[in-house]
Specification:
By secondary structure, the protein is mostly beta strands. It folds into 2 domains: 4-74, Trypsin Inhibitor V, Chain A (2-Layer Sandwich); 83-113, no CATH class. It contains 1 helix and 9 strands, in the order E-H-E-E-E-E-E-E-E-E. A 4-stranded antiparallel sheet has the order 6-7-8-9, with no helix packed on it. Strands 2-5-3 form a 3-stranded mixed sheet, with helices on one face. A hairpin with a 5-residue loop joins strand 8 (101-105) and strand 9 (111-113).
Amino acid sequence: MYDASVVGGGQTVTVPNVVGQQISVATANITSVGLTLGSQINVDNPVPVGQVVSQSPVAGMSVVVGTSINLTISNGPVVTPTWETFTPFFQRLVVPGQPTKYRICESQNVCKETM
Protein backbone atom coordinates (compact mmCIF):
# COMPACT_ATOMS: atom_id res chain seq x y z
CA MET A 1 0.00 0.00 0.00
CA TYR A 2 0.92 3.63 -0.15
CA ASP A 3 0.52 6.55 2.22
CA ALA A 4 -2.23 8.76 0.74
CA SER A 5 -0.99 11.73 2.79
CA VAL A 6 2.10 11.89 0.57
CA VAL A 7 0.25 12.03 -2.77
CA GLY A 8 1.75 14.83 -4.79
CA GLY A 9 4.80 14.79 -2.56
CA GLY A 10 6.76 12.54 -4.85
CA GLN A 11 6.15 9.16 -3.24
CA THR A 12 6.89 6.40 -5.74
CA VAL A 13 5.49 2.92 -6.25
CA THR A 14 6.40 0.01 -8.49
CA VAL A 15 4.15 -0.54 -11.49
CA PRO A 16 2.46 -3.96 -11.16
CA ASN A 17 2.48 -6.45 -14.02
CA VAL A 18 -1.11 -6.63 -15.31
CA VAL A 19 -0.41 -8.16 -18.73
CA GLY A 20 -2.48 -11.31 -19.12
CA GLN A 21 -5.10 -10.21 -16.59
CA GLN A 22 -8.73 -9.40 -17.31
CA ILE A 23 -9.38 -5.63 -17.34
CA SER A 24 -11.35 -5.70 -14.06
CA VAL A 25 -8.53 -7.48 -12.21
CA ALA A 26 -5.89 -5.26 -13.83
CA THR A 27 -7.77 -2.11 -12.82
CA ALA A 28 -8.00 -3.30 -9.22
CA ASN A 29 -4.27 -4.12 -9.14
CA ILE A 30 -3.36 -0.73 -10.63
CA THR A 31 -5.50 1.32 -8.25
CA SER A 32 -4.53 -0.72 -5.17
CA VAL A 33 -0.98 0.68 -5.33
CA GLY A 34 -2.11 4.28 -5.87
CA LEU A 35 -1.93 4.44 -9.65
CA THR A 36 -4.75 5.36 -12.03
CA LEU A 37 -6.13 3.72 -15.13
CA GLY A 38 -5.11 5.71 -18.19
CA SER A 39 -6.15 5.21 -21.80
CA GLN A 40 -7.42 1.88 -23.04
CA ILE A 41 -6.92 0.78 -26.63
CA ASN A 42 -8.69 -2.30 -27.96
CA VAL A 43 -6.99 -4.51 -30.55
CA ASP A 44 -7.74 -7.78 -32.30
CA ASN A 45 -5.53 -10.38 -30.66
CA PRO A 46 -5.54 -14.16 -30.24
CA VAL A 47 -5.82 -13.90 -26.43
CA PRO A 48 -9.30 -13.92 -24.81
CA VAL A 49 -11.59 -10.88 -24.98
CA GLY A 50 -10.93 -8.35 -22.21
CA GLN A 51 -7.41 -9.55 -21.43
CA VAL A 52 -4.58 -7.01 -21.11
CA VAL A 53 -2.12 -7.42 -24.00
CA SER A 54 0.35 -4.68 -23.03
CA GLN A 55 0.81 -1.83 -20.58
CA SER A 56 2.70 1.45 -20.38
CA PRO A 57 4.64 2.19 -18.27
CA VAL A 58 5.87 -1.39 -18.10
CA ALA A 59 5.85 -3.53 -14.98
CA GLY A 60 8.66 -3.01 -12.51
CA MET A 61 9.17 0.69 -13.22
CA SER A 62 9.20 3.08 -10.28
CA VAL A 63 6.65 5.88 -10.84
CA VAL A 64 5.07 8.66 -8.79
CA VAL A 65 1.80 7.80 -7.03
CA GLY A 66 -1.14 8.83 -9.23
CA THR A 67 0.61 8.02 -12.51
CA SER A 68 -1.72 6.75 -15.24
CA ILE A 69 -1.17 3.25 -16.59
CA ASN A 70 -2.23 2.86 -20.22
CA LEU A 71 -3.51 -0.53 -21.33
CA THR A 72 -4.01 -2.37 -24.59
CA ILE A 73 -6.98 -4.72 -24.30
CA SER A 74 -7.82 -7.70 -26.51
CA ASN A 75 -11.00 -7.80 -28.60
CA GLY A 76 -10.27 -11.50 -29.04
CA PRO A 77 -9.21 -13.22 -32.22
CA VAL A 78 -10.52 -12.13 -35.61
CA VAL A 79 -13.07 -14.64 -36.85
CA THR A 80 -12.73 -15.39 -40.55
CA PRO A 81 -16.12 -16.50 -41.80
CA THR A 82 -16.27 -19.56 -44.02
CA TRP A 83 -19.20 -21.08 -45.82
CA GLU A 84 -20.32 -24.50 -44.53
CA THR A 85 -21.43 -26.82 -47.28
CA PHE A 86 -24.42 -29.04 -46.51
CA THR A 87 -24.87 -30.35 -50.03
CA PRO A 88 -22.99 -29.45 -53.19
CA PHE A 89 -25.63 -26.80 -53.82
CA PHE A 90 -26.55 -25.43 -50.36
CA GLN A 91 -24.27 -23.50 -47.99
CA ARG A 92 -24.56 -21.62 -44.69
CA LEU A 93 -22.41 -18.80 -43.24
CA VAL A 94 -22.40 -18.31 -39.46
CA VAL A 95 -20.62 -15.28 -37.99
CA PRO A 96 -21.03 -14.63 -34.24
CA GLY A 97 -23.21 -11.60 -33.62
CA GLN A 98 -24.58 -11.48 -37.17
CA PRO A 99 -27.59 -13.10 -38.84
CA THR A 100 -26.95 -16.49 -40.45
CA LYS A 101 -26.73 -16.31 -44.24
CA TYR A 102 -27.63 -19.05 -46.70
CA ARG A 103 -26.89 -19.45 -50.38
CA ILE A 104 -27.83 -21.77 -53.17
CA CYS A 105 -25.22 -22.75 -55.72
CA GLU A 106 -25.82 -23.57 -59.36
CA SER A 107 -22.41 -25.26 -59.49
CA GLN A 108 -19.32 -25.45 -57.30
CA ASN A 109 -18.20 -21.86 -57.94
CA VAL A 110 -21.46 -20.14 -58.89
CA CYS A 111 -23.54 -19.27 -55.84
CA LYS A 112 -26.22 -16.72 -55.06
CA GLU A 113 -26.89 -15.45 -51.54
CA THR A 114 -30.55 -16.01 -50.74
CA MET A 115 -31.04 -14.80 -47.13
